[in-house]
TrEMBL record:
This is Uncharacterized protein. Signal peptide: none annotated. Pfam families: Cu-oxidase, Cu-oxidase_2, Cu-oxidase_3. Keywords: Membrane, Transmembrane, Transmembrane helix. It comes from Riccia sorocarpa. The chain crosses the membrane at residues 12-31. Residues 156-230, 280-360, 431-590 form the Plastocyanin-like domain.
Length: 603
């Protein structure tokens, strides 16, 4: 990702307002929205050159914990999206947000944690109560987006990581507004989640075409925990010792509002779209740089990176402490991993334990971030002054309190089937990631396999089949790629000579060592953070990432619903700014002769 110099940005910012009057003749409403946006903030905001947030003292506010709602009893939960204000730091005025909740007064950022039991279907009615005529974070109308004719803020909720019928998957074109206008793939607001996947941490978030970045940054996200007592390892920290962590970055104006760019990197093409949103302030569970009191004991953390674009490389300030990773996107690992750092792309979830048992009360320990932005080789130094994400304060254990003290199980998931995967498959797809830049080297379009969201479907896997996907990254960034419906294995990553490849001087069809091969190394196993079944993975620049995809349930069995009905599924980059322009593609599953559903839910 090419970054503009400050001098260039100053020139661009000065000229942008004049340019907008010309370039937006075809979308007059953008001029009005831009004027309203600037008036509300008092000034314009330039992509990746935002005014710094006001100075906020870190670690003065306790970590809040989202409310948990158990929806395992079969009763429908009515969950709405609302416009709220919420204090995100004791020194910051209340911030305007969009938030999920069961009512206006209970809506919070992040939304309540929904808890379910495996194999017990949950029913949620998603409602839109946002009164705005347009999003309060500016919409770029030059990129493909929902564009409701009667105005309003469209939403549609996706349960990330779920095995679910496509009409309940939160298709980007299944949006609806508060006034009742709907997108072309809208079917219903009443969703059924069969919860057939293994015990794992999922999350729900807005997925509206073209404005996912706006709505998620505004607050429309929350956790979803699938429990399965029969398969969960015994003696894991639980109750007060199991802590959810939703991590996100934002930037703020002095009045508490979110600082979101209204002038893009390439305003002559996209007036407002910014290739990546990076904030200078980290929030955990909706609080800026909070602290958490812990006893000298083991704690289990369920962490989600809900950022638009920021990767996190987490480390612990106390060298004697390690991350004991026990789970990933799609559930428990077979055996725990002891790690010094955790790399998390947007959309990643990780399940880990930190054992504070040997730490003296009164000690303060920090969860730090060292990842550059853009990742992996950006020049962004936004978090160098305060690189910490969260502070742990070790306090004495009160008399009569008995924290968990049993060892972490070494066989975490002995029932997890490990497929005997083969890289020989009936279908072996080679799919590129590409970026189109303007004359100044600023991105204006990012695509999967050189196709946009509205182009005809090209990925149509048969249910029950195995496909190998080679993801060829021709961009300068790492991208988190998310496949809806299934979990997959990242089995290999392999560096190649991108310059020679783009010149046509070598081939990716030839193996490493062949004189005509582009590969510069033999196939490498996945990094530690990419081990196990995943629904989102990182593909690095100038590398081929090889996926083993099986179009069945996580266990290799038929889905308990018809996965070929409805609008179909999606695969996309989970850098939300990329997804919105236009790094997202449809995927339509089809039936094979030997495949039979176990039974479909009523719709």
């Amino acid at each position: 990702m090419v970054r503009l110099s400050l001098a260039r940005r100053d020139t661009m910012a000065a000229a942008a307002c004049l340019n907008l009057l010309v370039i937006n003749i075809c979308v007059i409403s953008t001029v009005c929205q831009l004027a309203n946006f600037a008036a509300a903030q008092g000034q314009h905001s330039v992509c990746q050159d935002l005014q710094p947030s006001p100075a906020l003292t870190p670690f003065v506010d306790p970590l809040p914990l989202p409310k948990t709602i158990d929806i395992s009893n079969g009763t429908q939960l009515v969950m709405g999206a609302y416009k709220i204000t919420q204090k995100l730091h004791s020194q910051l005025p209340p911030t305007t947000l969009y938030a999920y909740g069961t009512s206006q007064t209970t809506a919070t950022y992040p939304g309540p944690t929904l808890q379910v039991t495996r194999y017990k279907a949950a029913h949620v009615r998603w409602e839109n109560h946002i009164p705005d005529s347009e999003t309060f974070l500016i919409t770029d109308r030059t990129i493909h987006w929902a564009n409701p004719k009667r105005g309003g803020v469209p939403i549609v909720t996706h349960l990330h990581g779920a095995e679910v019928e496509s009409i309940y998957d939160g298709n980007p074109d299944a949006w609806f507004t508060a006034s009742g206008e709907t997108g072309p793939e809208f079917v219903t607001q009443n969703y059924t989640y069969p919860n057939s996947q293994r015990a794992s941490l999922l999350w729900y978030h807005d997925h509206t075409v073209g404005i996912t970045r706006n709505n998620v940054l505004a607050g429309l996200a929350g956790l979803y925990i699938v429990r399965s007592p029969s398969e969960e390892p015994k003696n894991l920290p639980s109750g007060d010792y199991e802590i959810p962590l939703v991590v996100q970055d934002k930037q703020f104006w002095a009045n508490g509002s979110i600082n979101f760019p209204d002038i893009g990197d390439s305003p002559s093409t996209h007036p407002n779209w910014c290739p990546e949103y990076f904030g200078d302030t980290v929030l955990v569970n909706g609080m800026v740089w909070p602290y958490l009191n812990v006893y000298p004991a083991k704690y289990r953390f369920r962490l989600l990176n809900a950022a638009n674009a920021r990767f996190f490389n987490l480390t612990i300030s106390e060298p004697s402490l390690k991350f004991i990773q026990i789970g990933t996107d799609s559930g428990f690992l077979r055996s725990p991993l002891t790690l010094s750092s955790l790399t998390l792309a947007p959309g990643y979830r990780v399940d880990f334990i930190i054992d504070f048992s040997g730490i003296t009360p009164g000690t303060k320990i920090y969860l730090n971030n060292t990842a550059p932005a853009p990742f992996p080789s950006g020049d962004d130094a936004l978090l160098t002054k305060i690189p910490s994400v969260l502070q742990f304060r070790v306090i004495p254990t009160p008399q009569g309190v008995h924290p968990p003290s049993t060892p972490v199980p070494q066989n975490m998931n002995i029932t997890l089937p490990t497929p005997a995967y083969s890289l020989t498959a009936n279908v072996h797809r080679k799919l590129t990631l590409t970026e189109t830049d303007d004359a100044d080297g600023n991105p204006v379009l990012i695509l999967l396999n050189n196709r946009s969201w509205v182009d005809p479907v090209t990925e149509s896997p048969k249910l029950g089949s195995v496909e190998v996907w080679d993801i060829i990254n021709l961009t300068p960034d790492a991208h988190p790629i998310h496949l809806h419906l299934i979990a997959f294995l990242l089995v290999q990553q392999q560096q190649f000579n991108q310059t020679l490849y783009e010149e046509g001087g070598c081939s990716l069809d030839n193996p490493y060592g062949d004189t005509q091969s582009c590969f510069t190394e033999s196939p490498q196993p996945p990094n530690a953070e990419q081990v196990g079944f995943k629904d989102t993975f990182i593909t690095y620049p100038s590398k081929v990432s090889r996926l083993w995809t099986r179009w069945t349930s996580r266990e290799g069995k038929p889905f308990p619903f018809d996965a070929t009905s409805g609008p179909g599924y999606v695969w996309h980059c989970h850098i939300l700014d990329h997804e919105d322009n236009d790094m997202m593609r449809p995927a339509l599953t089809s039936k094979s002769t030997h495949y039979k559903e176990k039974g479909a839910h009523n719709t």
